Amino acid sequence: MIETLRTQRQTFQDVDRAATNGDQLNIDFVGTFANGEKAGEEFSGGTAKGTKLVLGSGRMINGFESGLVGTQKGEECKLSLTFPENYHSEALAGRDVEFKVTVNAVQEPILPALDDTFFASFDVKEGGMEKFRAEVKSNMARELKNAVKNSIRNQIIDGLVGLHKIELPKSLVEGEINTLRQQTLEQYGGSLKNIDTSMLPAELFKEQAERRVTLGLVMNELVQIKNLSVDAAKVRSLVEEMAESYEQPDEVVKWYYSNKEQMQQIESIAMEEAVIETVLEAAKISETVCSYEEALKPVEKAAEKLSEEG
Question: pTM for this structure?
């Protein structure tokens, strides 16, 4: 992770040698169709001047970056390539093209030193390397905990919704649709401020609304059956957990407890976690060993595999 952070802060300097993976090139290029009625014609989005490209970054279509490995400043080359069949532009999907590329500069990456200046850029102003490593490790542990927690939560929610087929009250579904409409408008901010929520088709939100209503009804039933209640200690723990990533966590905790609306949201989260824990106590659990990177990825494939295995 520390090496990843260094890479994110790397700079580049000019070199007089052939380019290798990891180098940054400054290039001009022109793309044209290689065959068909439009052979030799430039295509939209296929021309650029002075663009910067890190070789091996995967920004360009297959063969573009690898074709520039070994080139030098001032060199011109031609790349005969084919766009993927599933490319987002129908005009280019599966088409053979040719790029004429001019290399303006070759630059190699320079990683920042692991010194006090680098540590301070991540708000570690004392304690040196030892404190920085501890801070990185703490952040990684927190991200891992949240990722695993969310993975389990999503699997349980999918299970609860999938197992219960309920005749949903129309009024609840309509209310949820209106909520989703409003949230959509808020998400896009000022660009949609003059749009009436009713102008957004209900069908866009129906499936999600029905899922949310189903989940709410099932969870409320579990709360009643299991006589669950919000635990003050659990609420406090959630608030402190949310506050620990801030520079002054104590002040953040005070802010939460002084804000009624925020506390209601925290209490809702605490109640949801109580339901999740109740389901887990009765669930058949299988564990999977994986890397840190895999744990932070979406879990759809893992969930599908577990479902297939019963």
Answer: 0.65
